[in-house]
Design brief:
The complex is a heterodimer.
Chain A: E1 11-17, H1 21-29, E2 37-43, E3 50-54, E4 57-61, H2 63-66, E5 69-73
Chain B: E1 6-12, H1 18-26, E2 43-50, E3 53-59, H2 71-83, E4 87-93, H3 97-107, E5 114-119, H4 121-126, H5 133-140, E6 143-146, H6 155-167, H7 180-191, H8 197-205, H9 209-214, H10 216-229, H11 233-252, H12 266-274, H13 280-296, E7 324-325, E8 328-329, H14 332-353, H15 361-379, H16 382-397, H17 400-415, H18 422-427, H19 432-438, H20 445-454, H21 464-477, H22 483-507, E9 519-521, H23 529-548, H24 550-563, H25 580-588, H26 607-618, H27 621-635, H28 644-657, H29 664-676, H30 681-690, H31 696-719, H32 723-754
Parallel strand pairs in B: 1-3, 1-4, 4-5, 5-6
Antiparallel strand pairs in B: 2-3, 7-8
Helix pairs in contact in B: 3-11, 5-11, 7-8, 7-10, 13-16, 13-22, 14-15, 14-16, 15-24, 15-27, 16-23, 19-30, 21-22, 21-28, 21-29, 22-29, 23-24, 24-27, 25-26, 26-27, 27-28, 29-31
The chains are: A alpha+beta, B alpha/beta.
Chain lengths: 75, 755
């Protein structure tokens, strides 16, 4: 599944970071690499952007960017 | 022993405490905030080991990786590559180790002495975790020092380690696994004779834009290698770095932290409420209202209708109305302002008592009205301004402002900007100058241009006196609701105009895809008294400096211009209407007719408003300074107690008495004109420096147009409410046009792309 489909409060691990150019570079630099664990903390008012916990810190990104990240939900 | 003075560069992720460390090391007072990207320029200071041994310290903007995205990030990378500091101090936030070490693994690859400063270890210990420094040092191959920049712990050890490291050169090494492609790429750069070949090679494999420009020859060679390899190297490199770090962190962390879900800390609970999907935006608006009420309200507890409070505090003395007046208790901000006004009023009375001899009247006028009147008009507002700034600093320092960007991103995207642009705009409430500089952390040039243009609409502290004084008159004499509500309305109207302008620009001259929003949200913490004190001290100093230099000089100029005729004959206070200043004012006064404060005000005193449009160009404090001064002249010095509301009131009355018409709409339009028009000299100069070439002229034109059209609209809507419909229709018409223009352009671009 893609990160933007994940539910609030769910945890998933990254399979592949898609996107292109600078956005992809930025996502990789921020630690969104295969195997990294993502916890979806919350959605902003109007449902977008989202806030995730990754590698022990909080990161916010938009649905558009989350749409580039392939994840696998953990039970 | 003579020694070359060494330079250390502070390098690290945004918001990891570099500036706090810089302040602690050098004893300076650079601005610290709790959001990523506060420092946008490098700055330097000196650390003293002992009396005759010191080291230069350079604080660089924080970056997440050595692949920069924004101009301020390029500054940091270029400094290390081009200016060869003797040692790099890589500041690492120990509470956020994995991501912080990611960049450390990149700096390791450069041929530069390196020391890692593990910051915020005190916070870590509180959380019950400990780090194994030995393990970190062993795996990273450089010295690691535990510090707390805030509590000034470990600084001496750090600087000694930095000095030792600086004296012996270091060859770069990498944590990436050995691969044929890496060594081949490194060889290409070695052959080109560059230092830090491995670093450059990896950047080239990542298709780094700066690398391509800086060293095109080896870059091309590496691209060929990458093509032969064919794999996704960009992802692989990031992955390998993080894999190394994960392993290292597991080894070095002594007690694993509890699971995320098991603990819900206080800050998590607070966060749940503040950024709640439904309550988040209302909470922000209520917070803003409470702050403005505390600072500006003249009826703090809404008691004026209850009749509980009688009369005025200490009537007839110097302290008249300090705590309460007209049945209402003042807010703390107003009491502060009253206190200063009482003091300065008393001082004015005292000084004018020294000039009893009739021959000394011009001198008395010059000193009391001219010099003191102008200065006090500015000084009187400093406490209120600092009080407002105090609250903004708390919001900012606690980490809340970064959440506000998160909450409002969706809204901002509708207008074509990212939530990130909200931060410099909020900074604009303090002062446009740092706000405009802060736009460097935005992603695209167009986003920067739009943000810089609307920053002045976020009414700055220097404009606060204008709206406080004129709003006071609107409340006292025109039956408008409480003055704090009027002040709030001005702020909201300014934001509204900013939004309309951004949408208009985004659809027409500044068309582009909305930039991405990938932002770290810093952890909440209680505001640090030291950081707060620094913010407020700086602001206060800034205002006092301004008051005693540029405003002081303008005061004298205004006094001279208003007390002399073109033939250099001296004029009494009651003859000011014949002065040079009045003539200049009358010359441009008709221009303001559509805004309600033009020819309607008559020729006797109506020019007063027009004149402030000119003095305000130098500094916005001058607007109320000029008013305060003219008001004092009308009232006669002895009666003038130094309150700006009274001064504006006096001018308004003088206008009415001399046959002019002044309406509440005109006064409101006057405030809005000042909020929207060309900002002060300092802000214009900053905009000029920050905007790309060729945009300054358009920006000035934009400010003039918006303030003129906006002022007219506000005047009409206040005085003739039926015109609201027309204004709304015109806006709708404009946006429909702009919308279709945008559609057509996008279509044209698509067609071009298809060809």
């Amino acid at each position: 599944m893609l990160l933007d489909e994940l539910k609030v409060g769910a945890t998933a691990s990254v399979i592949k970071t898609g996107g292109e150019g600078r956005v992809r570079r930025h996502l990789l630099d921020m630690g969104i690499t295969p195997g990294a664990e993502i916890y979806l903390r919350k959605r902003a008012p109007f449902g977008d952007p989202i806030e995730i916990t990754i590698r022990g810190y909080e990161l916010s990104l938009r649905k558009d960017e989350a749409h580039c990240i392939e994840v696998e939900e953990k039970a | 022993m003579e020694q070359k003075k060494l330079t250390a560069a502070l390098f690290g992720n945004p918001n990891c405490g570099k500036t706090t460390l810089f302040n602690s090391l050098t004893g300076s007072r650079a601005y610290v905030g709790n959001w990523p990207g506060v420092t946008v320029e490098k700055r330097s200071g000196t650390y003293r080991f002992s009396k005759d041994s010191e080291m230069d310290i350079v604080d660089l903007p924080g970056i997440y990786s050595l692949s920069p995205y924004t101009p301020e990030e390029v500054v940091a990378r270029n400094f290390i590559i081009d200016e060869h500091p003797d040692v790099v101090i890589n500041v690492v936030d120990a509470t956020n180790l994995e991501r912080n070490l990611y960049m450390s693994t990149q700096v390791l690859e450069m041929d530069v002495p390196l020391v890692i400063a593990l910051n915020m270890v005190d916070v870590l210990e509180k959380e019950g975790r400990k780090l194994d420094v030995k393990a970190l040092e062993e795996r990273l191959g450089v010295k690691v020092v535990l510090i707390s920049a805030l509590r000034e712990k470990g600084l001496k050890e750090l600087m000694e380690a930095a000095r030792d490291a600086a004296l012996s050169p270091r060859k770069g090494h990498s944590v990436l696994p050995e691969k044929e492609i890496y060594s081949k790429a490194e060889k290409a750069y070695e052959a080109a004779g560059l230092s830090s070949p491995f670093f450059h090679a990896v950047k080239a494999l990542e298709k780094d834009e700066l690398e391509a420009k800086a060293n095109p020859l080896p870059y091309e060679e590496v691209q060929k290698l990458a093509q032969e390899d064919g794999s996704d190297l960009e992802a692989a490199i990031a992955d390998e770095r993080y894999a190394f770090i994960e392993k290292l962190c597991k080894e070095a962390t002594k007690r694993k932290r509890q699971k995320e879900s098991e603990k819900l800390s206080l800050s998590d609970k607070v966060d749940k409420v503040l950024t709640n999907r439904w309550a988040g935006i209302p909470i922000f608006i209520v917070l803003l209202f409470v702050i403005f009420h505390l600072v500006f309200s003249e009826d703090f507890l809404y008691l004026s209708y209850s009749g509980l409070i009688q009369g005025t505090f200490a009537e007839g003395t110097m302290w008249e109305g300090l705590f309460y007046a007209d049945g209402a208790i003042m807010s703390p901000g107003v009491i502060l302002a009253n206190f200063v006004n009482c003091l300065t009023g008393g001082l004015s009375t005292l000084v004018s008592g020294w000039f009893t001899d009739p021959s000394l009247v011009p001198l008395q006028g010059f000193i009391v009205d001219g010099v003191l009147g102008g200065l006090f008009a500015v000084i009187g507002f400093i406490p209120q301004i600092l009080f407002l700034f105090f609250f903004f600093s708390i919001l900012e320092d606690s980490g809340y402002m970064a959440r506000v960007a998160f909450i409002f991103d969706r809204v901002f995207r509708k207008f074509g900007l990212s939530g990130r642009a909200f931060l410099p705009m909020i900074m604009g409430f303090g002062c446009s100058v740092p706000a405009m500089i802060n736009t460097r952390s935005l992603n695209t040039e167009k986003e920067r241009i739009q943000t810089i243009r609307v920053i002045p609409f976020f009414s700055c502290m220097a404009k606060a006196p204008i709206l406080a004084a004129v709003a006071g008159v609107l409340a006292a004499d025109f039956g408008w609701a409480a003055s704090d509500l009027v002040a709030l309305l001005v702020y909201v109207a300014g934001i509204g105009v900013a939004i309309i302008s951004i949408i208009a620009m985004h659809l027409t001259t500044m068309r582009e895809k909305v930039p991405p929003f990938i932002m770290e949200l810093p952890s909440y913490h209680l505001p640090q008294p030291r950081a707060l004190a620094i913010h407020i001290y700086d602001k206060g100093k800034h205002f006092l400096k301004k008051a005693f230099t540029i405003i002081f000089l303008t005061t004298i100029a205004v006094w001279v211009l208003s007390h002399f005729r073109w033939d250099y004959t001296y004029l009494e206070n009651n003859q000011i209407g014949e002065s040079i200043l009045a003539d200049i004012g009358r010359l441009i006064q008709p221009l303001f007719t559509p805004l309600g404060f033009g020819y309607q005000l008559g020729t006797a005193w109506g020019w007063a408003f027009a004149v402030t449009a000119i003095t305000g160009l130098i500094a916005k404090e001058n607007v109320i300074m000029t008013m305060g001064y003219l008001g004092a002249a009308i009232l006669g010095t002895a009666e003038f107690a130094g309150s700006d509301v009274e001064a504006v009131e006096a001018i308004v009355q003088a206008v009415s008495l001399s046959g002019g018409t002044i309406t509440s709409g005109a006064l409101f339009a006057f405030i809005m004109f000042n909020v929207l028009t060309i900002p002060c000299f300092a802000a214009v100069a900053t905009a000029h420096a920050e905007l790309p070439k060729g945009k300054m002229g358009w920006t000035i034109l934009f400010w003039l147009l918006v303030s003129y059209v906006g002022g007219t609209a506000f005047f009409l809507m206040c005085d003739y409410p039926w015109t609201i419909a027309i204004v709304v229709l015109l806006l709708a018409g404009f946006f429909t046009f702009a919308y279709f223009y945008n559609k057509k352009k996008s279509l044209e671009e698509k067609m071009k792309g298809a060809d």
